[in-house]
Amino acid sequence: MATHMARDGGRSLTRAGFVLGFAFGGFFDGILLHQVLQWHHLLSLVDAEAVRDLRVQILADGLFHVLMYAIASLGLWLLWRGRRGFEDRGVDLRVLAATALGFAVWQFADVVLFHWVLQIHRIRVGVPNPLLWDIGWLVVFGLPSLALGLWLVRRAGNGPTPGGHGRRGPAVAALLAGFVVLSGLVAMLPPPGVSTAMVLFRPGLGAPAAFAAVAQADGRVLWSDPSGELLAVDLGPNGSAWELYRRGALLVGSSAPLAGCLAWSRV
């Protein structure tokens, strides 16, 4: 009975590794390409007039991060659910293999599905040969992680080996969980030392109400888009992001997990 439960736990840990690797691939994409390099938004190449609005682009990027948080949460739950699998010898290698494969699957799925099939963005938008950047990304990040995952699968062998304890399993699980949680925190926070926040108000609120909301929150408007509903705001030491939400803000870059990329954006 104990061996059967350990095997079930080992399978859950393997699934957890794959899901967490997939989520980390998404965080890596969002942090590096959306926030740091700012090479594209999620919907950069969508031609619809409504989608070309910077507010919609930023909101789509924020919702992408929410999806990654949900996937990462699923992976962490699977990791906890499969904790009995730590009794299985070799579980550390299988979890690491699944994580590397999950990361690789994200890279290939992103490029093939979103870049080439749906064509909603490319690795780098606005360059003469975007295909070369797509392929280069896969060569640098996709293929090495795939090769690492397959190599670890071979090292781990076929299936669980009962009768021993995966001494490194808990350490690997803790390291993996911590790494993914840290990635999520980096994706959600604005750049270090930035005192301003980007605030996206609900459509139709209008500039007068948006500016009044900033004043009520003890903030100062630094920049506004033509609609007056996307603002760069200095909240200062006494400013209240919650007051902005109460008065119609959808996203506040310095405090909301949805809007981590707002404060990084060059607007």
Index terms:
2 domains; 57% helix; 267 residues; four-stranded antiparallel sheet; 4 strands; Alpha-Beta Plaits; 7 helices; disordered N terminus; alpha+beta; flat
What does this structure look like?
This protein has a four-stranded antiparallel sheet with strand order 2-3-1-4. The longest helix has 35 residues. The N terminus is likely disordered. By secondary structure, it is an alpha+beta fold. It contains seven helices and four strands, in the order αααααβαββαβ. It has two domains: 187 residues, no CATH class; 69 residues, 2-Layer Sandwich (Alpha-Beta Plaits), CATH 3.30.70. The chain is flat and about 65 Å long.
Task: Please give a quick description of this structure.
It contains 7 helices and 4 strands. By secondary structure, it is α+β, with helices and mostly antiparallel strands.
Described by the principal axes of the CA atoms, the overall outline is flat
- Spatial strand order of the main sheet: 2-3-1-4
Strand content: 5-15%
The rounded Rg comes to: 22 Å
Helix content: 55-70%
Number of domains: 2
Please provide the count of β strands. Answer: 4
Structural class, judged by helices and strands?
alpha+beta
Intertermini distance: 60 Å
Overall average pLDDT: 82
Major sheet attributes: 4 strands, antiparallel
Which residues form runs of ≥5 with pLDDT under 50? 1-6, 161-165, 254-260
